[in-house]
Amino acid sequence: MLVNLSIADLAVVQSLDLGLEPGMSVLTGETGAGKSILLTALGLALGDRADSAYVRPNAKRAEVNLEFDLSDAPLARQWLLDNELDDGELCLIRRTISDDGRSKAYINNTPVNLQTLQSLSRLLVEIHGQHAHLTLLDNDQQRSLLDSYARNESLLTEIAEVYKQHRSASKELHDLQQQGSDQSDREDLLRYQLNELQALDLDHFDYTSLAEQHHKLANLGKILSVGRQQLELLYDHDQQNLSDSLRRCVNELTDLAGYAAELNPVVELLSEAEIQINEASQALRRFLDHQETDPQQFEWLETQLALIQQLSRKHRTPPEQLPEIAQQIAKQLEAMTHSGERIESLKLESQQLFNRYQELAKALRKSRLQAAQDLQSGISKTIQELGLPHGQFLAEVKPLVSLEPQLQGLDQIEFLISTNPGLPAKPLSKVASGGELSRVSLAIQVTTSTDKTTPTMIFDEVDSGIGGGIAEIVGQKLRQLSGKRQVLCVTHLPQVAAQAHQHLFVAKDQQRDITASTVFNLSEQERVQELARMLGGVTITANTLAHAAEMLELGSRQ
């Protein structure tokens, strides 16, 4: 349960530290006092989107802290353990919002993202807003509510998994069967393309080497001509070549070194150069001697490179990647060869999954029908107590026309209501009276909440459109609900407020042109005063106070 709420610099709240008790707590106050900001603070702390507009004027940031006692929240405790965020029996949630709009969230002082915070929040608090009855008009919400009441979570998980498997198998089967209609032509084309590529001798395919060989043969004349000129310059010229000139230079400098020893290093360098020139000349000679023109090889290279370029353009890929293209085509051909076997396998698999889905869908329908009987009985009884004496609630479960698997089963769920005898039940969306719909909504919430595990429930003026004796019954229902979990209710009805175990009063104060709201935990006498104010009238008389005191006494007996 929620044991403490603290707020700093959030909208009209400058500072607030509010302790909450088990059972039923009500929050009252004049219109505009700031009751809504407390629910806003709760929403922000539980993962709602933040905005810099929430930060109080002249403040750098707003902060909301929630403290939960987990002794009545085993699912939340296990979630914290699974996510390595546990810290004993208490759980601290903190949310900060900077004046630049950035926000941060913490669970037990560990930073978390909003998705993580929201996952935990769903296990701790359930909020029913002022317009909760409007969401009940949606058929998906009705189905979800019935499934939750029937505890169909594991069955829904299994049926969703089988549905996804069946859809995947059916899609693959459909694709293969579609391919089969033109598979023969496609297979012929792929075989032709593969034969073209295999003509390139793919086992020894080296485009770079082929291109280099072609480039060399294309320039062989120049290589031989220039190479022979340079060999003659280096070594072969009878009268003047570099090797002879260097030898004479070495001999002359060797004689001079006899007079100047400093020339010895120069002689050594030139001697090494002479040796290297001679070795280079011999290497160049051997190279030139082995170069022969080969018109047939050159023609073959020309043809091969032209074919490679053609196939490269055809397959829109660099020449180096043609072997990979051949592998891909070979795999496609292999897949086609075995597609017949795969089709038969998929037919069997798809049928087995379809049969399994039908079994699960039948089990789900049976569970829904049984839960619908219990749910409509409980809700009908509650709405009759809430001032609709002839009210009958129906949870209709109808099979869909199509047997094709659906994610949520094969049923159409619709809630219907009849408020007058002799008139047929109509869908909730056809109910004209807002007051009636509000009461039906509250009856649904109260009835379905008995099987929920969320330890804290918050009701934000769900009693709007209700008054008189019915309001007292609403209060009794909420108090009854608080016997199993903590209930926090924002209300403007004294009949509801009188039923609470704890009464919180929101007041606003105008200081220096800035409004500030605060919350007080009312004493017994203060509760009488507040109930009298809520009962109305310009002047609170002794009779009004007596009436308020009587309401409070009767409420405490429930």
Explain the overall architecture.
- The chain is α/β, with parallel strands linked by helices.
- The chain has a domain at 186-333.
- It has helices at residues 35-45, 74-82, 114-121, 132-135, 139-150, 153-181, 183-198, 207-218, 220-236, 242-257, 264-289, 295-315, 322-385, 434-449, 468-481, 494-497, 524-535, 542-556; strands at 2-10, 13-19, 24-28, 61-69, 90-98, 103-107, 110-112, 125-128, 392-399, 411-418, 426-427, 456-460, 486-490, 502-511, 514-521.
- A hairpin with a 7-residue loop joins strand 10 and strand 11.
- The two termini are 22 Å apart.
Cα-to-Cα separation, first versus last residue: 22 Å
Largest sheet: 6 strands, antiparallel
Unreliable runs, pLDDT <50, ≥5 residues? none
Shape from CA axes? elongated
User: Which value, in Å, is the CA radius of gyration?
Assistant: 44 Å
Question: What structural class do helix, strand and pairing data support?
Answer: alpha/beta
Instruction: Tell me the strand order in the biggest sheet.
Output: 2-1-4-5-6-7
SS element count, helices: 18
State the helical fraction.
Answer: 40-55%
